[in-house]
Automatic annotation (TrEMBL):
Keyword line: Kinase, Transferase
Organism from which the protein derives: Phocaeicola coprocola
Carbohydrate kinase PfkB domain location: 3-208
Domain of life: Bacteria
Assigned protein family: Belongs to the carbohydrate kinase PfkB family.
One function term, GO molecular function aspect: kinase activity
The UniProt record lists the keyword Transferase: yes
Gene3D superfamilies: 3.40.1190.20
Protein name (database record): Sugar kinase
Presence of the UniProt keyword Lipid metabolism in the record: no
InterPro entries: Carb_kinase_PfkB-like, PfkB_dom, Ribokinase-like
CDD domains: KdgK
């Protein structure tokens, strides 16, 4: 049985202000690389999954560094295109206390943003794959990339792949005259697996979100309301087999609560609430969920295990600086065992 997962997106240079400095205070930056779909691929690879990443990189030292970075995590790169002149960049000002994080994108004219339909041989890329994963960020960058996403989804469907879609709404990226709803709604109906926050689902579907208000571990939340929410979503996307939602409540930059739900075949699975009281870096938490979820699709038959594993992996990402969730299966399972027993897993 084919188990390879193919992800598609832009890996970028991440420049972060040190020591919680504001952008205008900083005279140096911490250097990392990351991007939603690359982060997903790295999570899958760290769990031991078979994953290929597709992007376009410039023919320069930054592009070469990205290739080396991906290969160091055992990610397949044979379908990556080389061309263009720029690597996309984003600047990160980390949150502190009640001050929110701030991101500045510099992606216009990047090698990836110049992709057009016909440039990627999707039939070759999907030849030995089971799942294709993409996100709304890809379609937000340019009209050409929105068409590339449509092209990839069409070929993947024709070849019998499962389509995984992360809503990944970023309002600051939608600048070419079309709304996210206008572009993404026609694409999302092809999804077999969908992931997003409750706010992202509400944005695309127009269905009001219940609102996650948990403030501590062990606290209950309105599972019935989320079941009705998912049922309404499924009526708009009837072909989608799995609807995953990440639930987060932010009390401060360092104190979050987190839970996950999965709706499939009219059945609701949900996790307990995790209390994260020392958040190191919340960038890539959704990507960590997606990576763990895609790995779990092949690793576990039990749907409760899938959503538990995905949620616990996301919780661990909050403790890791940078974009990547550099954790192993044993660490995720260890957190679940510890959380269930209240004792240290030995």
């Amino acid at each position: 049985m084919k188990k390879k997962i193919v992800t598609f997106g832009e890996i970028m240079l991440r420049l972060t202000t040190p020591d919680n400095l504001r952008m205008q205070q900083s005279r140096e930056f911490l250097v990392n690389y990351g991007g939603s779909e690359a982060n997903v691929a790295i999570s899958i690879a760290n769990f031991g999954g078979d994953v290929e990443y597709i992007t376009r990189l410039p023919d320069n030292a930054l592009g070469e560094t990205c290739l080396a970075e991906l290969r160091s995590h055992n990610i397949g790169t044979r379908h990556i295109l080389i061309g263009g002149h720029r690597l996309g960049t984003y600047y990160m000002e980390k949150a502190a206390a009640m001050r929110n994080s701030k991101v500045i994108y510099d992606r216009e004219g990047s090698a990836f943003s110049e992709l057009k339909p016909g440039m990627i041989d999707w039939h070759a890329a999907f030849a030995d794959a089971a799942i294709f994963h993409w996100s709304g960020i890809d379609a937000a960058l340019t009209p050409g990339l929105a068409e590339v996403c449509k092209e990839a989804i069409t070929v993947a469907k024709e070849m019998g792949l499962t389509i995984s879609y992360d809503i990944n709404y970023r309002k600051n990226l939608w600048n070419y005259g079309k709304s996210a709803q206008e572009v993404l709604r026609p694409l999302m109906v092809s999804s077999d697996i969908m992931f997003g926050s409750e706010g992202e689902y509400a944005l695309l579907t127009g269905i009001p979100a219940p609102g996650f208000k948990a403030t501590k571990s062990g606290e209950t939340y309105d599972v019935k309301a989320y079941e009705e929410f998912c049922k309404a979503i499924s009526q708009q996307i009837p072909n989608c087999k799995y609807i995953y939602i990440a639930l987060r409540n932010v009390m401060s930059s360092e104190h979050h609560t987190f839970a996950g739900v999965l709706y499939s075949n009219g059945s609701m699975k949900y996790t307990r609430v995790f209390d994260i009281d020392n958040v190191i870096d919340c960038v890539g938490v959704g990507d960590a969920f997606c990576g763990a979820m895609l790995y779990a699709q092949h690793a576990y038959e039990d749907e409760q295990k899938r959503v538990d594993f995905s949620t616990a992996a996301s919780v661990l990402k909050n403790t890791i600086a940078g974009d990547y969730n550099i954790v192993k299966v044993s660490e995720v399972e260890g957190l679940l065992a510890k959380h269930e027993s209240g004792e240290v897993a030995r």
